[in-house]
Structures are given as C-alpha cells and as structure tokens.
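[job 0412] stage=complex_fold ligand=copper (II) ion status=START
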Amino acid sequence: MSAAPEPSPAASPAEPVHVSRNYLNASYTVRSWLLTVDHKRIAILYLLGVTLFFFLGGAAAVLFRLELMTPQADLVESETYNKLFTLHGIIMIFFFLVPAIPAVLGNFLVPIMIGARDLAFPKLNLMSWYLFMIGGVFTLWVTVAGGVDTGWTFYTPYSSTYSNTYVMATAVGIFITGFSSILTGLNFVVTVHKMRAPGMTWFRLPLFIWSHYATSLIMILGTPVLAITILLVALERGLGIGIFDPKLGGDPILFQHLFWFYSHPAVYIMVLPAMGVQSELVAAFSKNRVFGYRFVAYASIAIAVLGFLVWGHHMFVSGQSLFAGMVFSILSFLIAIPSAIKVFNWTATLHRGTVAFDTPLLYAIGFIGLFTIGGLTGLFLATMAVDVHVHDTYFVVAHFHYIMVGGTVMAYLGGIHYWWPKITGRLYPEGWARFSAVLVFVGFNLTFFPQFLLGYLGMPRRYHVYDAGFQVLNVMSSAGASILGVAYLFPMCYLLWSLKYGRSAPANPWGAVGLEWTTPSPPPTYNFVETPIVTWEAYEYPGSNPAEVAD
Amino acid sequence: MNTEFQLFPDAASTTARPVDQLYLSLVAFSAAMSIFVAALVIYLAIKYRRNNDVDRTQRPTHASTEITWMLLSLPVLVFIFIWGAKVCFFLLRSPDGAMPITVVPKQWMWKFQHANGRREIDTLHIPVGQPVRLTMVSQDVIHSFFVPAFRIKRDVLPGRYTDVWFEATEPGQYRLYCAEYCGTNHSRMVGKIVAMTPGDFAAWLSGASGDDEPPQVAGEKLFEQLQCASCHRAGGDAPARGPSLEQIYQRPQPLASGETVVADDAYLRESILRPAAKVVAGYQPIMPTYEGQISEEGVIQLLAYIKSLGSVEPAPPAAAGTPTGEATVPQGAGRLEDQR
Ligand SMILES: [Cu+2]
Ligand SMILES: [Cu+2]
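[job 0412] stage=complex_fold status=DONE, emitting structure tokens
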C-alpha cells in the first residue's frame, strides 16, 4: 500500500552526490562525441539536430504567415509559397515531430528509467543518429538547390508525373531518415524487453516507457510502408513504370492508401511519446500515482493497434465508397476512447495530490487543454458528413496543429524543462520559464483558433492567394504566430544561458520518484553506480493513491 | 462570394442545413467538454496546490470507474456516428432525376458542359430548386470540387469518374474552390457558381448556345472520325471484328476470360482507352489503344453517343447523356486495372 517500507525511491540517495565523473565531462574531444555509443550523448546529438530542424521549419512558417497577412501575393511567388509550406511540413514532421521526443528524451531516459546501463544496441543507436542527420542534411541541401512543391503528402500523380521540382531527391532524404526511426524503434523494444533492472516488472514501468514501447511498435511496423511507397513513386518517376498515374495504367488512390497507412499511425508516433511525457509530468507535479495506471498503459497499446485501422478517414472525399467510409468513420470514433481515458486520468491524478505550479506542470496543463480541443475536433473530422465540408480546409490545419503543436510540442517543452537539470546538471531561471510557457499557450491559441473558423468558412489549405473576406482571421493567425515564434526563442536563450550561469542541480530537484532521479545530475556514463533493485511500484509517492483494485 | 468578413459561411443548398445542424451540435458538445475539462483541471490544481491544507487521503482506484467512463462514452460516440451517417447518405447519394453536367478540370481551370452542349469555363450556371449532378474526371492531376456555401466537396480524379450532387436553394453567386493541392496555381483555381431561378436558367441555357453541340452529337462525329464503325457496326455480310454497340449500355458482357462484366461507364471507358484489358468473348484483342489520343471530354462524348444507341434496361434518368459515376458502381469497379 501507500507507505512503502524502505527504500522509497524519493528518499534514496538524494542530495548532490558529488560524482566528479559524469557522461558530460568524461571526455571533451569532438571525436568522443561523434563516435559516442552512450545513449545520453546520442540524445544530446539528437537534441542539437531536432532543434536545428525545428527553427528551420519554423522559419518557413514565419515566411508564409507573413505572406498570408494579405489576400494577394506580395512577398513571394506561388512557386516559392508552395515550396515553403512543403518544406515546413516535411521538416516539422519527419525531422522534428517524429524524432523529437523518442530520440531526445526517449534516448536519454529509456535506459535510465528501467535501470539499464544503455540501450540494447548502442552502436545501432549511433548509426540511427547518422542516418537521421544524413537524411536531414540531404533534404536541406535539396531545398537550397531548388526545393520541392508537392506538399508533405506527395499526392500522385502530381508528385510522380507533373511536378518538376526535386521530388526524388527529397524522397531519398525521407527514405534514409525512415531507417533511423526503424532502428530507434527496434532498439527500444529490445531494451524494454531484455534490459529491465531486477524487480522492474512491466507494471512497475513508468508510463513514459509504455508509451515509448507502443511508439516503437508503430515505428517498426509502419515506417517500412513509407519506404515502400517512396520506392514505388521513384519507380514511376524514374523508370515510367505505371503504379499511380492513370495515364500509365496506375491508380492515384493506391498512393493515398499506402501513404496514410503510414502517416496516420505516424500521428501516434508523434503523440504517444508526448502522452508518456505528460504522464510523468502530471505525476511528478502532483506527487501522485497516475490515476488508472494500467488503463493508461493499455490505452497506449490500444492506440498503437487501432491507429493502423483508420487511415481511410483521410479519403472520405477521394472517391472511396460510402461503405468503406462508414467503416473508417466508426473506427476513428473508437480511437477517441483510449485518448479520452488518458485525458480523464491525468486530470484525476491531480485529485488529492500535492500540486506544484512549476514550469513543467504549466506545460502539462496546457497540453491537457490543447490536446482536448485537438481530440474533440478530430470527432468532427471522423463524422463524414462534416468532413466532406471541412476536408482540405484550414479546419484540418487547425486540428492537427492542436494535436501536433498543442500536444507534442507542449509535452516536448515540458519534458525538456522537467529533465533539463538531469540532462545538464543545471537549473534554469524559473520566472522566465513560466512566462514563456504562458506565452506559448497564448500565442498558440491566437495562431490556430482562428483557423477553425477559416476552415468552416471554406478557406482551402495550401492557398497562396485567398478571398478578401478571409483576411481578418488570417491577420489574427499571423499575429499569434509572431507571438508563438518569440515564445519559442525564449527557452532557447535561457536554457543556453543556464548551461553556464545556472545553479547546479541536485540529483532530485523536484522531489520526484523514478529511477532517473536516484542517480546524480548529470548521470555517470553508465547511469548507475550499482544496478538498482526495484522493490517499489511506479509513482510511489508517500501517501499517493494506491494501485487500482481489479473488481 | 467571400469578399466581406464573416464568421459563418452562407448556406445556399439543401445539404447546408443538416450539415450545419450536425456541426453546431458538435461545436456545442465540444465546447461543453472542453470547458468541463478545463474547469476541472483548474479547480483540482488550485484546490490541491502545495501549501493548501486539505484532506489528501487517497482511496484505491477501482477498475470499474475506468470501465464506466468507457461505457458512458460509447453511446455518445455511436449517437454522433449514426447522426453523421444519416446526413452522409443524404449528402452523397444523388436523387433520381438530377440534372446532369460534366466537369473536366485541368491545371488550373474548371471546364463544364451542360447536357444540351453548352460549355462554360470557371463559372457554372445552375437553377435553384433542382438537384444537379456533376460527373467529373480530371485531365491531369487530382483536383477537388468544393463549394463552401453548398457544404459539398468531391475529389476529381484522373482516369476515373466521380460524382457529386447538390440542390441550390437561393439564387446568387457562390465561390467554387479547388480544394486538393494541384500545383503552382492551385490557389487561383477558383470559380463561381451562379444559381438562378428556373426561368432565368432556362433562358440562359437556350440563349447563346452557338456552336456547342450536345455531347452525343459530338460523340457521333468523333465515332465517325476515328472510324470506330469499321469494326463496331451491326449487320453487314462479314462477321464484325468488334461487338456491336447497339443497346450495349448496361448490358452484361461475357469476357474471353470467362468472367462477365456489365458495360457501364467505367467498362466502356476502359475499353476505349485500354481495349486489351477485358476483351469480350469471341473477339480477338485487335483494337488499338486510344490512350492519349482522345481527351477526357472526347471519351465522355463517345460514351454519350454509345448510350444514345440505347440500353438494355432503362438507364437511370440521371444518367441520360452523361456517364454515371461511382454511386452506381461498386467500389473499385471504376478503378483502372493494370494493363497486361
Ligand atoms: Cu488520420
Ligand atoms: Cu486544382
């Protein structure tokens, strides 16, 4: 029950154990970073990579939001506009949202949270970073060399026959990066199965691990389909083999089936890890066991499985039969249930907890609000009759930004703040951090809420010029985007500042439980001085709500 | 026409009302849920804040609590689904007797043709109070026919017919957008729908028709020009090299492969463009392919001509003069098969 006898993790080696050697100061050479097989250092390498891509993808958004201040074309030509939104989508999805949480926070935390010294395949882990960077830099180079204008969705036959931009080169970049995703997924699955510390049973795992496990399954099963799809487009574009273009005897809808068979589950590659972070944040800042722990864990798996069965909801107006549409519609409604379970359980975790309003909790609360709106508007899109009207309009754009930015980016930032002391051994200025968290929330809503209205009014997405009646809402959205842009720069600044000037962090600055808080900040190269033996349940805070009763 | 600032779109078709009712109910439901969640989070977070002295005794969580939530959410979801499905059936199934119009867009324009042959580009005149049914096929990439004021949208695919129907309720001009990204000038692929009273529309339709011929007339000319008749002619002394086209529309055709296929639009279209794919039993696969030699409009005209030669069962009235789209074709039947 609640008062666990002896070593309660919260009470274990708490205050600054001054281990002089840690993973950061183990060696300072460039070589020691570029050839490292330490999962923590690889996480840092990923952090640098995804941060670079985030700001590049953001820069593209700044440009087209500026362009959209007026209905006419004034800043850029249509070709450029189309390349900008394509660049934004590709970079943000494949090079930021998909890797952000798993490859940075997951890489750093999965081994530590289960009491392991590293991931199962450390060299594979390094290789996956190289694949990621090669794919990313290649894609960037393509952009500089001329760009691509198909949208991140690459719909055929536009992409396979008609576009005369660098479709193939971009696809190669994404293809390569896909393998980094697959390798990361494999690594996590094997690690969670084989490398848990003694006593760390499946139901003692933090929910962060459960959600990363579910994510890894999707990465392993879904990403190859993306690779195959890209290959097929290449065959058609390069060799003229008819697969998607009806003029060559192909079927353009086949592409959409293949593409969404990966890309809908990919939404959960982006969201499940965020849900894992969210569970950690809510538990740590209400000093309470996550309400309905097992249900949250099972919900992750349910989402991973159901996520593969709903791709057709992207094709309600594509010429899919009415009955196929109905089946995809009802399955899409069903997938709302596991997500709703999570939202209710996070909320219920606050009940009778001890709530501390530190920065990570502000992000977590923001996440609940924005993810709820994102999820509920998903119901609109699952309802075919409404989807017919709002499909391919700004309503969809707003919806997925509430999920991807309101959900994933909020959780990512919350997680970065929560584990920053652990990762760097430094504390950041709390005042600035709280201010930025609030600013992100305000800027986000101002940017994307007007887009719901624009969508129902009928403004199609990917429009460079638009009707004058849409201008007011577009100006609001652009104004919000400028606030959001600034709000994202703040953490960048004060977190960097903290590396040099921040107070050094104790092993457990938040008084949180979890194995990562039992080891010094920053952790030693092999994470633990001794392999921990786990005798406690997950989130076993003193007086926290006990494990659920099966009845 | 979306030139003034609005917060809610014009509603000008019979589908707009049911869609709006469903949408607004979802908005109300979502707003209630969001406010409930937000209020609960804020209330709990403040009540149980660190330094507040409140009772924090925990009780064990029961699995039944979670299961109750799940079971409670099910009827709500099923209710929304059924309501949505009902509206959807109305939205997607065109009523009998709808006025046929063909739409053949390409990068970046909308081309329309009325049953009497009158053509338009980027503007479509229609009568109010009369269901209109568009049969659409793209000349190049995927486009999407979207009229916000009517709450309808349908993708226009290359190589396959899709259709959409609507009934305008208010005379006026409404925006037409291409909703599927289709290249450089995607955002300029806009047009307008001019809804007129039936009297005005009849006058408009008959006036200024000029040299636009009805599709079946143009189709007959094309038929002659391509010398289709040298093989597909009933009667004559020598056995014909191709099946007769008299009354072929909607007639089941036995294939050389032993299967049977109904000679619907999709089949006829395929047999013109890729004749070798499904050869009628008893004939040699000698017909040349017309892929790339006839425009989509040409194919539609040929189909109109073939239909004018009669059909076994009375074709649905909606289909007269234009191909029927996919509502009458099972899923996939209209899809192009790989050429062997
Ligand atoms: Cu989806
Ligand atoms: Cu278009």
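The longest helix of chain A spans residues 78-113.
[job 0412] exit 0
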